[in-house]
Amino acid sequence: MAYLRQILIFVRPGNLSRAVDFYSKGIGLAVESVTENTAKLQCAKTGTLPIVLKAVDGNEAVLSPGYGPFLNFAVEDFDMTIPTLIQMGASLDGKIEYSHHGKGCCTEKPRWHHDWTVRGKCRYCGAGCKIM
Protein backbone atom coordinates (compact mmCIF):
# COMPACT_ATOMS: atom_id res chain seq x y z
CA MET A 1 0.00 0.00 0.00
CA ALA A 2 1.30 3.44 -0.94
CA TYR A 3 0.94 6.61 1.13
CA LEU A 4 1.97 10.23 0.82
CA ARG A 5 5.10 10.71 2.90
CA GLN A 6 5.89 14.41 2.61
CA ILE A 7 5.36 17.56 0.57
CA LEU A 8 8.44 18.67 -1.34
CA ILE A 9 8.77 22.32 -2.37
CA PHE A 10 11.61 23.56 -4.54
CA VAL A 11 13.08 26.97 -3.81
CA ARG A 12 15.52 29.03 -5.81
CA PRO A 13 19.20 28.90 -4.86
CA GLY A 14 20.06 31.28 -2.03
CA ASN A 15 16.48 31.48 -0.75
CA LEU A 16 16.30 28.49 1.58
CA SER A 17 16.65 30.56 4.76
CA ARG A 18 13.98 32.97 3.47
CA ALA A 19 11.63 30.07 2.80
CA VAL A 20 12.30 28.59 6.26
CA ASP A 21 11.54 31.96 7.88
CA PHE A 22 8.38 32.29 5.79
CA TYR A 23 6.99 28.93 6.92
CA SER A 24 8.20 29.09 10.52
CA LYS A 25 7.69 32.77 11.38
CA GLY A 26 4.97 33.57 8.85
CA ILE A 27 2.82 30.42 8.89
CA GLY A 28 3.89 29.04 12.27
CA LEU A 29 5.33 25.62 11.36
CA ALA A 30 8.04 24.09 13.54
CA VAL A 31 11.50 23.64 12.04
CA GLU A 32 12.61 20.02 12.46
CA SER A 33 15.94 20.19 10.64
CA VAL A 34 17.95 22.40 8.31
CA THR A 35 20.93 21.42 6.15
CA GLU A 36 22.81 23.33 3.48
CA ASN A 37 20.26 22.42 0.78
CA THR A 38 17.11 21.24 2.58
CA ALA A 39 14.86 22.07 5.50
CA LYS A 40 12.09 20.01 7.07
CA LEU A 41 9.14 21.72 8.76
CA GLN A 42 6.23 20.17 10.63
CA CYS A 43 2.87 21.26 11.95
CA ALA A 44 2.19 20.60 15.63
CA LYS A 45 -1.05 18.79 14.76
CA THR A 46 -0.77 14.99 14.79
CA GLY A 47 -1.11 13.25 11.45
CA THR A 48 0.01 16.12 9.23
CA LEU A 49 2.67 15.69 6.57
CA PRO A 50 6.03 17.40 6.85
CA ILE A 51 7.01 20.03 4.32
CA VAL A 52 10.51 19.63 2.91
CA LEU A 53 12.07 22.67 1.28
CA LYS A 54 14.86 21.91 -1.18
CA ALA A 55 17.13 24.43 -2.85
CA VAL A 56 17.45 23.45 -6.51
CA ASP A 57 20.28 24.66 -8.74
CA GLY A 58 20.14 25.00 -12.50
CA ASN A 59 16.66 23.63 -13.20
CA GLU A 60 14.45 26.62 -13.83
CA ALA A 61 11.62 24.38 -15.12
CA VAL A 62 10.75 23.04 -11.66
CA LEU A 63 10.74 26.56 -10.25
CA SER A 64 8.83 28.31 -13.00
CA PRO A 65 5.44 29.82 -12.25
CA GLY A 66 2.40 27.89 -13.30
CA TYR A 67 0.11 25.31 -11.85
CA GLY A 68 2.17 23.88 -9.04
CA PRO A 69 0.78 22.34 -5.89
CA PHE A 70 -1.56 24.49 -3.86
CA LEU A 71 -0.85 24.51 -0.14
CA ASN A 72 -3.71 25.13 2.25
CA PHE A 73 -2.95 26.17 5.84
CA ALA A 74 -5.20 26.72 8.83
CA VAL A 75 -3.71 29.33 11.14
CA GLU A 76 -4.49 30.35 14.71
CA ASP A 77 -4.50 34.11 14.16
CA PHE A 78 -5.57 34.99 10.63
CA ASP A 79 -5.53 38.75 11.27
CA MET A 80 -1.87 38.68 12.31
CA THR A 81 -0.70 36.06 9.81
CA ILE A 82 -1.81 37.80 6.61
CA PRO A 83 0.11 41.07 7.24
CA THR A 84 3.17 39.04 8.27
CA LEU A 85 3.06 37.01 5.04
CA ILE A 86 2.67 40.17 2.97
CA GLN A 87 5.72 41.69 4.68
CA MET A 88 7.60 38.49 3.78
CA GLY A 89 6.83 38.76 0.06
CA ALA A 90 3.31 37.35 -0.44
CA SER A 91 0.43 39.33 -1.92
CA LEU A 92 -3.32 38.85 -1.77
CA ASP A 93 -4.86 37.26 -4.86
CA GLY A 94 -8.38 38.63 -4.57
CA LYS A 95 -10.25 39.63 -1.46
CA ILE A 96 -10.49 38.08 1.99
CA GLU A 97 -13.60 35.92 2.12
CA TYR A 98 -15.83 35.94 5.21
CA SER A 99 -18.22 33.09 6.02
CA HIS A 100 -19.85 31.58 9.09
CA HIS A 101 -16.78 29.29 9.34
CA GLY A 102 -14.25 32.09 9.52
CA LYS A 103 -12.02 33.97 7.09
CA GLY A 104 -10.02 32.78 4.11
CA CYS A 105 -7.94 34.13 1.28
CA CYS A 106 -5.60 33.16 -1.50
CA THR A 107 -2.20 34.72 -1.68
CA GLU A 108 0.21 34.88 -4.56
CA LYS A 109 3.54 33.32 -3.92
CA PRO A 110 6.73 35.14 -3.22
CA ARG A 111 8.97 34.93 -6.28
CA TRP A 112 10.77 31.90 -4.93
CA HIS A 113 7.98 29.33 -4.65
CA HIS A 114 4.48 28.01 -5.42
CA ASP A 115 0.96 29.09 -4.44
CA TRP A 116 -0.89 28.37 -1.23
CA THR A 117 -4.11 29.20 0.57
CA VAL A 118 -4.36 30.52 4.11
CA ARG A 119 -7.51 30.10 6.15
CA GLY A 120 -8.42 31.10 9.65
CA LYS A 121 -9.44 28.78 12.45
CA CYS A 122 -13.17 28.10 12.43
CA ARG A 123 -14.88 29.93 15.25
CA TYR A 124 -17.54 27.19 15.45
CA CYS A 125 -15.72 23.88 15.34
CA GLY A 126 -12.10 25.00 16.03
CA ALA A 127 -10.81 23.39 12.83
CA GLY A 128 -9.35 25.09 9.80
CA CYS A 129 -12.45 24.87 7.59
CA LYS A 130 -11.88 25.43 3.87
CA ILE A 131 -13.66 28.47 2.58
CA MET A 132 -14.88 28.32 -1.01
Plain-language structure description:
There is one protein chain. The chain is α+β, with helices and mostly antiparallel strands. It has one domain: 2,3-Dihydroxybiphenyl 1,2-Dioxygenase, domain 1 (Roll). 20% of the residues lie in helices and 32% in strands. It has three helices and nine strands. Strands 5, 6, 7, 8 and 9 form a five-stranded mixed β-sheet that branches. A hairpin with an 8-residue loop joins strand 3 and strand 4. Helix 1 packs antiparallel against helix 3. The longest helix has 12 residues. It is globular.
How are the elements arranged and paired?
Elements: E1 7-11, H1 16-27, E2 30-34, E3 38-42, E4 51-55, H2 60-63, E5 71-75, H3 78-87, E6 91-92, E7 97-99, E8 102-108, E9 116-120
The CATH homologous superfamily is named 2,3-Dihydroxybiphenyl 1,2-Dioxygenase, domain 1
Structural class: alpha+beta
Q: Radius of gyration in whole Å, from Cα?
A: 15 Å
The shape, in one word, is globular
Share in β-strands: 25-35%
Query: What name does the CATH topology carry?
Result: 2,3-Dihydroxybiphenyl 1,2-Dioxygenase, domain 1
Main β-sheet: number of strands, strand sense, barrel status?
Answer: 5 strands, mixed
Number of domains: 1
CATH architecture: Roll
Distance between the termini: 32 Å
CATH class: Alpha Beta
Average pLDDT for all residues: 75
Unreliable stretches, pLDDT < 50, 5 or more residues?
Answer: 122-132
Q: Helix count?
A: 3
